[in-house]
Amino acid sequence: MINQAQRLIITATTGAAAVKINGSTLHSAVGIPVESGDREQQIKVARVTDKQLLKWKELDYIIVDEVSMMDAKVMMQLNKTLNLLRGSHKEHEAKPFGGVNVLFFGDFFQLPSVSKLDLWRGKLGRWHQGHDLWRSLNAIGTLTQQMRQAEDPKFTEAMVRIRIHEPTDEDIAMLNTRIGAPIPDSPAAPIIVRRHYVRHAINLQKLQETALAHGMPIVHCKAEVVASHGLSLHQLYSIIQGPKKATGDGVLSLIPGAPLMITKNLNHLPVPLVNGAIVEFYGFSDSTNQYQTSAIIDLPHYMLVRLLSRTDDQSIHLSGLPANVVPIWPESFKYNAGHGRWARLRQFPVTLAYAITDFKSQSQTYEWLRVDIKRPHTGAASVMSPYVQLSRGQSLQRLSILRPFDSNDLRAPISEELKAELKWEKEMSELTASIYQLVSLIKPMCR
Q1: Separation CA 127–CA 137 (nearest Å)
Q2: What backbone phi and psi angles, to 5 degrees, belong to 341?
Q3: Beta strands per DSSP E along 201-246
Q4: First-to-last C-alpha distance (Å) of the chain
Q5: Does the N-terminal or the C-terminal CB of the chain have fewer CB atoms within 10 Å?
Q6: Are 386 and 194 in contact (CB under 8 A)?
Q7: pTM for this one?
Q8: Cβ of 17: how many Cβ atoms within 10 Å?
Q9: Nearest alpha carbon to residue 255 among 352, 356, 326, 355
């Protein structure tokens, strides 16, 4: 498709995945409200503007990557929003997705939706239409070749078995050789964990180690408390990004060069940044840049971050700043602690990224990698996490496993509903292949 870019929009269900494909998040691209909770009785859609209607007149294709993280409710929101954008206001006139061709990419052996309203589940109550829309797909293609680990055939073969939860004893023994294996210690070798509190603790430890090694003071930036009810200052400053939809930390601890993850879409910046993008801390605004002598500071007017992995022709140059250094402003977010306790804070929408969660790692590829595949002792934990973490690496020799794990976690059975989904996908894939094979035979006969 030459000169047809205006007909296609590329999206992903997470910001981290969107960065990798030079796309945008599905929510921001289509205008799906992010704050719609699972208890909502109706599907909510954002207000459609004339500008959006004009844009979507030209769009015929939308790509949605990482579909395993998409839930039935978002599928219904996508369908309803696309019908509005394409002018199908009446239900009886509506076509699936407003007649837009939707191309989904993903793997249900990877991490599921946070809401548990997975598209492959058949019993979803009021969200059942999301499952029906998924099953309305008329073509499926299955990719079978592992490309990320192509340089390490033995590791590739093991990952094929680990993906379907059928590792051999030899596969487990091979992984055990990588427990505590030494690899280079750098921000380019992230640590993947399964809990936000573990991520936060490791990030602070790595920050302290790096600061000590380079003789740099750590600055602790306090969030501004706009309003609160039932929470002490200690509790407010103990808030960490992630749990209960907090997009910032109560106290953001930093040193120059520290890796940071953007925690919400920032479309108003000179260069839009999506939730999940990685940047480096550069400094604070000059008027409040006092952290050389003061370890604890109030919220500055803005902070400066350096954009990573930009080629010369992509470089950003703002007056008075080094190349690829851009400002970020504080954002307001609400934290709901439950039982009537809540707070509204202002803080920079970033968090330390020496360590990241498994959900943020999906879709990523790392040259060097540390993982924590041990199942947490408490709380829900996806059985898909070990495969997702391990498969981010390219080679067994550049992988380190933080601590011993239970091999039974890698052999956890998958649900009967998911087995039924995989059977349907296989049948659809075979049908699609036979149809296109028939078309390829018929075409020469029609010339």
Answers
A1: 17
A2: -95, 130
A3: 219-222, 224-229
A4: 22
A5: C
A6: no
A7: 0.88
A8: 25
A9: 352
